[in-house]
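Known limitations

Structure tokens in this collection are predictions and should be treated as such. Users comparing against experimental data should check residue numbering before alignment. To illustrate the layout, the record for Ketoreductase domain-containing protein is reproduced below. The input appears on top and the generated tokens appear beneath it.
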Amino acid sequence: MSQRLAQVSGHLTNTPRGLLHDEVAIITGAGQGIGRSAALLFAREGAKVVVSDLDQAKAQAVADEIKKAGGSAIAVAGDVGAEDFPEKVVSATVKEYGKINHIVNNAGFTYDRMLHTLPDDAWDVIQKVHVRAPFRLIRAASPYFRIKEKEKRENRSIVNVSSTSGLHGNVGQANYAAAKAAVIGLTKTVAKEWGTFGVRANTIAFGFVETRLTAAKEAGASITIEGKQVALGIPQAGAQVNRTAFIPLQRGAHPDEAAAAVLFLVSPLASYVSGHTLEVTGGAGI
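Generated tokens:
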């Protein structure tokens, strides 16, 4: 058994400590959905979690839930697209925990329009949130990842959330598909540039996960972006289509299942996985 595998094996045998014992993870968009599930799961696996969300109340509620269960967490609210966001969340994390092991760039939303009616602002804001924001947060955290001294390195990784729309395109999602494709290129570049520092970078492409982005648009969920209300979800009025017929497992994923895949990528179980795009689709697209 190699030294690295021995380290991983030794870590896993001590299961009461968890896969992420004493590691620090920043998770954006962690107030609900996949992000919330990931925050709770990481905490159960021993991580100290920085819960970031646009909604302060939701972020704090998740952090409080973690602490109530005996874990460690702080809430850092903010718009990932804001100019001061990267420094704000990195500073808060380092002040509280002294290091950063993982960043999960999960925050995002959809702003669907058919291509010929897609306005510039709907294009620009999706690129800003899904590509520019992850890039700027990763860049701001670079001193805590680009560690030259091998003896000071711990398990460290970047996970950027993509989508099957970024792999295959999708009707009504030219902006979203372009952004989710771009983040794959960003991730592969991080993997190549920072691999020499022992940092892994991977993308996770989700298919149909049951969140507010895939719920019925008629339910009225929305998000306020730059002062504008953006409706979320998929129109269902008059639809007779079986939305899971194209999925071999014949169902959508629960956010907890999506979070488990994120945990795999950041954990020692994926210690030799970098530059990869993990498709979590229930078999769709094969």
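For this record: Confidence is low (pLDDT under 50) at residues 1-15. The radius of gyration is 19 Å. Please report discrepancies through the issue tracker.
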